[in-house]
Amino acid sequence: MTEPLHDEARPLSRAAASLAADFLDARRDSPVSGDKSTAAVAVGGIVKTEASACVVRRVSRRDLAALVVMCGEHAQYERAPHAPAGMAERLARALFATPPRLHAWVAEASGELLGYATATVEFSTWQARDFLHMDCLFVREGRRGDGIGVSLLAAVIVAARCAGCAEIQWQTPDWNTDAARFYRRAGAIEKPKRRFSLQLDG
Q: Of 9, 48, 74, 85, which shows the fewest CB atoms inside 10 Å?
């Protein structure tokens, strides 16, 4: 039975959260450099890690303003331009459409959002199957190394499995060696490619 990705503000199901907890617990034997997360539990369908004391849940409409701010911080970190004007409205249309174009999760502790991840379901021509494209995974400065990134990645992995996707794909700047090390330690395989962008009028 697959788990839909489009429910607004819906936490992971108990079964999915347990899968994420298993993923996190398995990392105790191979921790990410600087990652202090040592264990995870599934409580009420929400992933919790002992070190970060955060929960990972699906984004809700009330998170949009904070999500736009985090997107700006993420863009600044990756040395990319950011245009926040109208962004909350455009994100809302993508996130809460039926079906949604974009899926997002946030990590939260004590009412504060600490990071986020976003993904879209795409189709692989060569595999002739759906895959999940993780567009963003970001943890705010001062909270990196607390297991938050691992928790977000676990939620994305669980969502991809529940949706029946063949794999997850993503990219990171070539200078971001910390992110590359994080992803390698998570078991991801690096594939060197060049990224192109063609700007269109309007």
A: 85
